[in-house]
TrEMBL record:
PROSITE patterns reported in the protein's UniProt record: ABC_TRANSPORTER_1 (PS00211), ABC_TRANSPORTER_2 (PS50893)
Natural source organism: Paenibacillus sacheonensis
InterPro entries: AAA+_ATPase (IPR003593), ABC_transporter-like_ATP-bd (IPR003439), ABC_transporter-like_CS (IPR017871), P-loop_NTPase (IPR027417)
SUPFAM superfamilies xref list: P-loop containing nucleoside triphosphate hydrolases (SSF52540)
Keyword Protease assigned: no
Source taxonomy: Bacteria, Bacillati, Bacillota, Bacilli, Bacillales
Origin superkingdom: Bacteria
Entry annotated with the keyword Cytoplasm: no
Name the UniProt record assigns to this protein: ATP-binding cassette domain-containing protein
A Pfam family annotated for this UniProt entry: ABC_tran
GO molecular function, one term: ATP binding
ABC transporter domain location: 6-234
Family: Belongs to the ABC transporter superfamily.
Keywords (A to Z) from UniProt: ATP-binding, Nucleotide-binding, Transport
Amino acid sequence: MNEYVLRTQQLTKRYKTQSALDRVDMTVRKGTIYGFIGQNGAGKSTLMKLVTGLAFPTSGSIELFGATGGAELNLARKRMGVAIENPALYPQLTAAENLEAHRLQQGIPGKESLKRTLDLIGLSGTGRKKTKNFSLGMKQRLALGVALLGEPEFLILDEPTNGLDPMGVVEMRELLTRLNREMGITILISSHILSELHLLATHYGIIHKGKLLEELTSRELQERCRQFIHIKVNVPERAAAVLERELATTEFEVTADGVIRLYAHLDRPADVSSALVAGGLALEQFMPMGEDLESYFASRIGGGEHA
Ligand SMILES: Nc1ncnc2c1ncn2[C@@H]1O[C@H](COP(=O)(O)OP(=O)(O)OP(=O)(O)O)[C@@H](O)[C@H]1O
């Protein structure tokens, strides 16, 4: 899919001497869920504020639905729903009353959007319960509801899973997945925890100290975090033949230095080593390896320190 919802070019924001965003080229394609990952202070909120018009760039450009500036860009912003930082929820009001207050503030016609939105965010059963008595997960979903009132094509969500318990994270993930798959809404979502966006995001951008270090698809991330058994033997070609013949697998690769990475039989390491030894091979190294998501993230931003 090559239609862009958002593209930034060399987008830069400086606060006095502090550089919050440094020449960021970001691309969000239509229909995707873009996970924007970075530690606290990395620049995630700053980018979102620039895109939504809550702050102005020092330099660089923003293209939203093909619009690049002035009135055209402001018009394009109307196709966007936004939840950045703490949402302005009124604690004394119910979920429906909160939505109604925001509907009026945003000038969205028609009350019918209230019921539809409440159903969508799973809060239609909360009746007279005041928002102050909601769980954090419910408050986050209500904030999402506010962003959904204007039936946006593009949602920008700043850390909507922040502070949620694992169940809350799953609920938010399911809801966002539904919005994306069933309603075709493109989503830009930030988090400082990569694994929270796992199973949700289709694309990732990793930001560190204001610089976008990398953009990659979830498939590329999966490949990079793939688990394998690292095998070093005296005769790699014979080991390859043993794996194919005795363990009926071709899911391995032999690296240039003769190390085998076996991606299958990860749950049966004893069977693998026995087969190799029975094939007359001497095992020099044999260990499970691979990065998990968080260590991949740490290795990327660790590298960024020296960039
Ligand atoms: N209004 C401001 N004035 C001065 N510096 C700011 C301002 N807003 C942000 N910054 C600085 O810009 C940098 C990026 O901040 P930003 O809020 O974008 O990070 P973030 O990735 O969203 O992190 P967090 O999750 O903590 O919000 C930080 O160093 C921050 O201190």
